[in-house]
Amino acid sequence: MRDKVVEEIKTGDDLKIDLEANTLTNKTQNKTYDLKSLGEVIDIIEAGNIFEYARKTGMIPSS
């Protein structure tokens, strides 16, 4: 059985998330984990938050 990533990461570990490759790299432990794709959620993350995404896509007016 595979260990859960959250059980392997320790406070202070240096982590890098690659959204294009869908990977999480723990630089401290030199381990890389495959992540599930974030799908359309990535657009919200790149916009900064849900409200900025809504403004960017015209769902709510810009202030």
Spell out the blueprint of helices and strands.
Blueprint: H1 5-8, E1 15-18, E2 23-26, E3 31-34, H2 41-47, H3 50-56
Helix pairs in contact: 2-3
Summarize the structure.
With 63 residues, this protein is an alpha+beta fold. The chain is 29% helix and 19% strand.
Instruction: Give the beta-strand count.
Output: 3
Give the total of domains: 1
Helix content: 25-40%
| Low-confidence sequence ranges | none
What's the alpha carbon Rg, rounded to whole Å?
16 Å
Order of strands, widest sheet: 1-2-3
Distance between the termini: 50 Å
Number of helices: 3
Structural class: alpha+beta
Strand-residue fraction?
15-25%
Query: Average pLDDT value?
Result: 89
Shape: elongated
What about the largest sheet? Answer: 3 strands, antiparallel
